[in-house]
Amino acid sequence: MATERYPHLKVTDPTVYNLILQQEALERSTLKMIASENFASFSVLEATGSPLTNKYAEGYPAARYYEGNAVIDEIEDLAITRLKALFGAEHVNVQCLSGSPANQAVYRAVMKPGDKVMGIPVSEGGHLTHGWKVNFSGKDYLQVPYGPNPETGILDYDQIREIALKERPRMIWCGTTAYPRTIHYDKFAEIATEIEAYLVADIAHISGLIAGGVHPNPVPYCDLVSSTTHKMLRGPRSGFILSRVEDRYQQKYYADSKLNLAKRIDRAIFPGLQGGPHMNVIAAMAVAFKEASEDSFKVYAQQVVKNAQTLGAYLQEAGIHLACGGTDTHLLLLDFRAEEFTGKDVSQALARAGIICNFNMVPGDQRKPMVTSGVRMGTPGITSMGMKEDDMKKVAEWITRVVRSIHTETAESVEKAVAAEIADYTKSFKVPGLSD
Ligand code: DSN
Asked: In this structure, are residues 28 and 426 in contact, taking their beta carbons and an 8 Å threshold?
């Protein structure tokens, strides 16, 4: 018999209880294909919901500003040890509250206001924090933009080098939110070293692929690496930074400082930007890092990529164009530039049909970011449910039926029929953190 969910909440706050159950039902009966979403395990959720939430622990293990932190120190040390082992990092910080705060700390540790930062604009697949004009990173620092080739959608490393040599930024971000191809950190490292820039990988989208051994690891090539933990890595909502201990540009930029790179990162997080760490979340991170170190996670990561590639091939067969010509990762970018309907039309139609993804700019997009010509989708969520290559044939058929019906008389009935088929199909899959 299934255990009753949230028995206390059910009594004390039925309003919140019912809203949570509604969201759970939605996630059980639809396809979670937002490339940055996933299902955390029951164990991760239990640690997140534990009374560790009550503890204040400003500082770092063995150097706290509050008493009573002996157990808390063990928890943070455990998360640190597991994370170091997972990525082979010299130093890690697990206190970042999420991806943007982690990236904010990166700037504080290696940049001065007004310095140039090279990053991909949001509209071309970068992140807000890589120097976008409305974000702190674009207001306090000067973005030198680079991006994938608008024709091919692929990063052109010769062109990136040319921009770097001309602009000589102090820091280069290599990381994206919408790039389906492998990122060549070795090539970025050559460029950064040539101009003596800090190289920072933002691996939020692909940290699970890296931990699972199906994407190159940036750690040997980068000064710093930042990530969230709740995307493919299946952890709680949080962030971390991996770094070298010594700063290779200490003499150039920080000759007067006694703080090496690792210490500057730690100081940037606390006391620079944050107060008490969320220890319930850090415990859940430790759980997720253990899960990600297991052989079953490697199998999962391989399946995520196989599913994305299989789904991409079926979609192409059905005449749907893919930016970059396909994928090496968890992510597909469907390109509707040639269509009279927009990316937003497609993502909304798919959502009504039970396929949850998001509209997204594609390389060479002429439409505005609020409508776009593209749709971004990923396979981490549906692979966590247990779907394999055969299931991708079904998923591709559903997507194709919905896309073909857009702006036709049959749109509503097709969307309803697909939603019902998906609700039925998903019943046979076990959803981590949701199904008993
Ligand atoms: N919100 C994330 C994504 O969907 O890619 C980026 O932070």
From this structure: yes
Is 243 within 8 Å of 223 (Cβ atoms)? yes
Nearest-CA residue for atom 4 of ligand 1:
36
**Among 224, 228, 223, 222, CA closest to 240:** 228
- Name the active-site residue from 48, 129, 176, 228: 228
CA neighbor of 175 nearest in space, from 224, 113, 141, 142 = 224
Measured distance CA(434)–CA(436) in Å, rounded: 7
In terms of DSSP bridges, do strands 142-145 and 91-93 run parallel, antiparallel, or are they unpaired? unpaired
Measure 228 CA to ligand 1 centroid, in angstroms. 9
Active site residue 58: yes
Tell me, using a 6 A CB cutoff, whether residue 277 lines ligand 1.
Answer: no
| Per-residue pLDDT tens listing for the chain (436 residues) | 567 899 999 999 999 999 999 999 999 999 999 999 999 999 999 999 999 999 999 999 999 999 999 999 999 999 999 999 999 999 999 999 999 999 999 999 999 999 999 999 999 999 999 999 999 999 999 999 999 999 999 999 999 999 999 999 999 999 999 999 999 999 999 999 999 999 999 999 999 999 999 999 999 999 999 999 999 999 999 999 999 999 999 999 999 999 999 999 999 999 999 999 999 999 999 999 999 999 999 999 999 999 999 999 999 999 999 999 999 999 999 999 999 999 999 999 999 999 999 999 999 999 999 999 999 999 999 999 999 999 999 999 999 999 999 999 999 999 999 999 999 999 999 999 998 7
**Ligand 1 pocket, residue 36 CB under 6 Å:** yes
Ligand 1: which atom is nearest the Cα of residue 358?
4
Nearest Cα residue to 327 out of 206, 147, 240: 206
- Does the beta carbon of 227 sit less than 6 angstroms from any atom of ligand 1? no
Pocket test for ligand 1, best of 32, 34, 100, 205 (most atoms within 8 A of CB): 205
CB 177 near ligand 1, within 6 Å: yes
